[in-house]
Amino acid sequence: MQSVRQEQQFISTAMSAPLLSFEHEQDLALRWRDEGDERALHELVSAYMRLVVSVAGRFRAYGLPRADLVQEGCVGLMQAAARFEPERGVRFSTYSTWWIRSSMQEYVLRNWSIVRSGTSAAQKALFFNLRRLRAQIDGAGAVNLTEEARDQISEKLKVSTREVVAMANRLSAKDQSLNAPAGEEGSDEWGDFLVDDRPSPEEVTVTVRDNATRGVWLKEALSDLSDREQLIVRERKLNDEKVTLEELGVQLGVTKERVRQIEHKALQKLSDGVLRRARDAADAGRGGDQLITLSDEMAA
Q: Which of 45, 94, 225, 242 could be joined to 229 by an S-S link, Cβ 3.0–4.6 Å?
């Protein structure tokens, strides 16, 4: 109740501030810019608080507190005062309106929904003009966006029809807490029905353990190969940059066909070695039956 009275008092004070003549406005702006006269700034800004209140009324359809909108508008008004160039001969009200409206639009976009509704200039224009254009085309009482309205809005605002439909759907729905009751009876909440597609802690632990075990088996199986076989397997299958058969042939002093034959035989020995260790682990009850052979992966 106290805040409502304070808001009403602020609005009353803002609307009762005296209007400025063009000459006096220019004088105040020059004194502030050139001399840093804070009293001139206070008088200039106070005279246009009514403009902030007026612009805030245009955003009442978004359901945000008017006091917060006015506060954001005051920020825009101060930004306008800092950038105003009186020698251009433009009224301060004309110049500051853009800054006030821009500050309020940013506030609406940040707070209207937890989902960011406009990130580009075109998206912002769509967000703030969709309701108005839709009412002009389909009438104020229209419930659903007609195809004609969608196409006209798309053409007027230079966005795709898909973006128009997506924004219309977004504006027609409100954020809902996941802690809200899912029904009139019972203690279930909407968040209880969300599916978590991530692996369970048990699955993560098993995967990490299995990968570590495979790594050990692969290292042991590699040690069973000859030095030449280990070189070919590492260069062809285990390094990020694979060496060609021809390059290995030159390095080993054999033909590339011979390198291919050695590679095939080494991979088979490697696969057999890993499988043998998996069977031994299964026989010993260490979960080897749950591990997958590496032969297909290495042959790929």
A: 225
